[in-house]
Amino acid sequence: MESGSLQALPAVLALELSAGEHPQRWSLSRDEAAELAALVAEDLHALVPEVAQARLTLGGAAFDAVELLRPGFPVWATLDELARRVPRGQLENVVAFGHHEGRMPAQPLEPDPAYADGPMRLLPLSVLANEDIADALSERLEVELVGRGEAGAQTADWLMRHFGVRLEHARYLSRNDLLALTCVQYEHVNLAPLWQLLEAAMLTPYQPETALSARGLALRYADGKAWMQSPAQWLGEQSIDMSERGHAFAGAVFELRQYAALLQAHGIPLQLDGVASTQYLHGDGWLAEILADTDAGYDAPTLFAHEAAGLGVVAVTVAQRGSGGRARILAHGYPLQPAALGQLIATLADRFGTASDLHALGRIQLDENGLLAAPDTALH
């Protein structure tokens, strides 16, 4: 059977950690990965004997779901590519990849420490089957893994000893099972619109997708990127009592931050989206919308910080004051994480040729129309 005729059937070995467990490592050496792969092969052969006709591949590293569920599925793609290079018949047709001197054979197989604290870790598997049996084998795996895919006792014991953790469960899931499980998890925390974009990015990246967040911010996926309506623009479209508008705006920024963090974790860049005349900027951990250029007939631009309890600085507004102290809005910026505030301020100050001094408002400043604004008179 030529490697080019092999069809990949992706799966995972899912490790559900007991409460309070924090392993010190999440990758295996080459020898350890080979030992585990042999145990996994026994488990899968017992569930679906036809697996013996295919090549089993295991990545000797455990990931968070966000690292596996990315456009193009890079971890599985790398695992499959490496496996296809190994001459058929070696290791009894079971192939495993672990680290050598602390390094995995390819960068996508290196778990990111930033996502190491989740309650479930996933070791990627792939069954490479000849095309004439692939469809039938895929169907059998989908049925058997979801129905009775608990790992064998010997495999579970091996995992606990080598990773140094106690496990509640160790079970096999197809990639479709993992997609369904993650969908349910996101829906449970009111993030179904986010999953709608993620699913499009992974399964139908050639098709645009639109959605509305729980608060009603417009979302879309296109050309490998996610686009989200700016909170300031969203606020301008809302019919909300004036006394509630500041709180609503803070909630919209919180949602923007939530979406930005998860999209980044899934490997999808996020940008602001809106009217064609507005220029949008983005950096590492911040987003901004440029509404107007500096007008020489006004005072020098000033940066103002809108603040909300529990969220800190939720927006930075750049404004100029003209005759009578009236504020003219030039831009709004949104720090998505505290560490990004400094870079956002520096970028806006440079963009408008002004000092990087940030004037704290201690609140969210709105104008008489309930729109994000700046003080009309100088602060003292």
Helix and strand topology:
Blueprint: E1 6-17, H1 30-47, E2 55-59, H2 65-68, H3 74-85, E3 94-97, E4 120-130, H4 131-148, H5 153-163, E5 167-174, H6 175-188, H7 192-203, E6 209-212, E7 218-222, E8 225-229, H8 231-236, H9 242-265, E9 270-273, E10 279-283, E11 286-290, E12 302-308, E13 312-321, E14 327-335, H10 341-351, E15 358-360
Parallel strand pairs: 2-3, 8-9, 12-15
Antiparallel strand pairs: 1-4, 1-5, 2-4, 6-7, 7-8, 10-11, 11-14, 12-13, 13-14
Give me the number of helical elements: 10
> Globular, elongated, flat, extended or rod-shaped: what is the shape?
elongated
Mean pLDDT: 92
**What is the N-to-C succession of helices and strands?**
EHEHHEEHHEHHEEEHHEEEEEEHE
Distance between the termini: 79 Å
Largest sheet: spatial strand order: 10-11-14-13-12-15
Number of strands: 15
- Which structural class should the secondary elements be placed in? alpha+beta
Fraction in beta strands: 25-35%
What's the gyration radius in Å? 26 Å
Residue ranges: pLDDT <50 for 5 or more in a row?
none
Helix content: 25-40%
Oligomer: single chain
Profile the largest sheet.
6 strands, mixed
Q: How many domains comprise the coordinates?
A: 2
Structural features:
2 domains; 380 residues; 5-stranded mixed sheet; 6-stranded mixed sheet; single chain; alpha+beta
Describe this structure in words.
The protein is an alpha+beta fold and 380 residues long. It has 2 domains: 185 residues, no CATH class; 186 residues, no CATH class. It is built from 10 helices and 15 strands. The strands form 3 sheets. It has a 6-stranded mixed β-sheet. The protein has a 5-stranded mixed β-sheet with strand order 3-2-4-1-5, with helices on both faces. A hairpin with a 5-residue loop joins strand 6 and strand 7. Helix 1 packs antiparallel against helix 5 and helix 6 packs antiparallel against helix 7. The chain is elongated. The termini are far apart. The mean pLDDT is 92.
